[in-house]
Amino acid sequence: MKKIDIEKIHTTPMGEERIRRNLDLQSVDVVSWCKEFVPAADFMIGLGKNWYVYGSGVVLTINASNFSVITARKISAKVREMQTSDYVCLPEFLYQAIYIPEGEILPPREIINSPNIDIYIKNFGTQPGDLGVVAKCQVSEQIIGAAWTRIIPAYGHINNDTPELAISILPPFRSYGIGTKLMSKLFEVLRENGYSQTSLSVQKDNPAVRFYQRLGYTVSGERLDHAGHEDYLMIKEL
Predict the structure, then answer these.
(1) Residue 106: beta bridge partners?
(2) Which residues in the chain show pLDDT less than 70?
(3) What is the pLDDT at residue 18?
(4) What is the per-residue pLDDT for 196?
(5) Looking at the whole model, is its pTM more than 0.85?
(6) Most distant pair of Cα atoms in the chain: their distance
(7) Are 186 and 236 spatial neighbours (Cβ–Cβ below 8 Å)?
(8) Whole-angstrom Cα distance, residue 17 to residue 2?
């Protein structure tokens, strides 16, 4: 796929109308705005015939052959139940779920093969409590987030009737409300499957603690993880 040539970026009258409407760019030169947006973007993905350029909560869809901007939309995601075909994504989301405190180096990806971490996804879908949801970007159709539960003897284990939750969103898609959508859908799935509560384990200094509290989780205890970090054990009634 050809690299985007900034000078060749253009759009059609219909494309300009869509972009103005979707982003409320009423008094801005759309093509100039797009040319400034692309080099400042957080990242871009080439899929099929298009480039998808992400930044500042917006995604541009650009034809990879002629660099015509097809549309631009605010980043949003559609959440659905996890399917068997989605399980292939779990290793990546498990790795992205690992919290790295400030000042610590990023662990090697092989860390997810450790028995105390691999347990969260190994043979997923084969036992009671293996439930999940995924979030797909509505523009690129890429799976950008996942939340799932298992009943396993892991850090957040309470009892054999309480699924432990894990959630992960690819870094560029965080802070857009996708996590809340994933959790809400997963709570619904858990209730439909007869579960009355769910648990999780989270490091005390992880900012996600506040996120979980907003969703109704409460601290029920404290534990040390395999690396000696102090964790909260949290429970939410469904």
Answers:
(1) none
(2) none
(3) 95
(4) 98
(5) no
(6) 60
(7) no
(8) 26
Q: What pLDDT does residue 141 have?
A: 84
Residue 155 structure tokens: 């850090």
What is the dihedral angle through the alpha carbons of 204, 207, 208, 212, rounded to the nearest 10 degrees? 80
Q: For 102-129, how does the pLDDT look when each residue is reduced to its tens digit (9 = 90+)?
A: 888 889 999 999 999 999 999 999 999 9
Extract the tokens encoding 61: 């869809």
Residue-wise pLDDT for 36-53, tens only, equals 999 999 889 898 899 999
DSSP string, the chain: -PPP-GGG-B--HHHHHHHHHHHT-TTS-HHHHHHHHHHH-SEEEEETTEEEEEETTEEEEEETTT-BEEEEEE--EEEEE--GGGGGGHHHHHHHT----TTPPPPPGGGGGSHHHHTTTTTTTSSTT-EEEEEEETTT--EEEEEEEE--SSTT---TTSPEEEEEE-GGGTTSSHHHHHHHHHHHHHHHTT--EEEEEEETT-THHHHHHHTT-EEEEEEE-TTS-EEEEEEEE-
